[in-house]
Amino acid sequence: MNTQLINIEVYYEALCKDSVNFVSKELLPVYNKLNKFINVTLIPFAQGNITINTDKTVNVTCRRDGECNADKVHACGINKIKESEKLIKFVNCSLTEGFNSPNKTIPIEVCGKNSSIDNNTITDITECANNTETWSTLLQNYKNMSSSANVTTVPKILVNKVPEDFTSINLMKVVCKKINDKDLPEECKSIVSGSDNLVVGVLPIIIGAFYIIKMI
């Protein structure tokens, strides 16, 4: 199969309920079924602010209590985990566990193990999240990306650079409709044909109604 990948960008915050729900209910299921067709870019710290001072001290602020520390873990996970499937699972786990945690702390080792990540990478993520120079560089980069994308609310979803409304998006349908017909997987056929059949079925009704009204 030689098909152009569909690019999905997700700008999010680590302790945002809408971000948690989008990744768990939309992104992860779509990735599990259509990962051959998509390229996912994850951008945490989308609403945070960071200032790296000349004396190397760092000022960082986030919307929610504990969110900056959680964002550090996400940034480090994205930086250290090289396999997309494991990364998506780690991010999903980190969002869910962090949001539901009483102290809003991400259990890095738990999410690492649940995502089949090796011990060395888990250690790398932990060390990264505790190293100011490392995580501050990552968060500054994500802040720049979010500013360029004009992020005002999260999650912000771009599919092939086109914004999608996270409150109503059916990501599976959006992705399926962008896959070439010749490459269309089984998971998409009922979705695409179903929408086509709806148009075919409704159009004659609309035309019939128009002529009835015209005759009246």
Automatic annotation (TrEMBL):
<keyword id="KW-0732">Signal</keyword>
<dbReference type="InterPro" id="IPR004911">
    <property type="entry name" value="Interferon-induced_GILT"/>
</dbReference>
<dbReference type="GO" id="GO:0016671">
    <property type="term" value="F:oxidoreductase activity, acting on a sulfur group of donors, disulfide as acceptor"/>
</dbReference>
<dbReference type="GO" id="GO:0005576">
    <property type="term" value="C:extracellular region"/>
</dbReference>
<keyword id="KW-0964">Secreted</keyword>
<feature type="transmembrane region" description="Helical">
    <location>
        <begin position="197"/>
        <end position="213"/>
    </location>
</feature>
<comment type="similarity">
    <text>Belongs to the GILT family.</text>
</comment>
<keyword id="KW-0812">Transmembrane</keyword>
<keyword id="KW-0325">Glycoprotein</keyword>
<keyword id="KW-1133">Transmembrane helix</keyword>
<protein>
    <submittedName>
        <fullName>GILT-like protein 1</fullName>
    </submittedName>
</protein>
<keyword id="KW-0472">Membrane</keyword>
<dbReference type="Pfam" id="PF03227">
    <property type="entry name" value="GILT"/>
</dbReference>
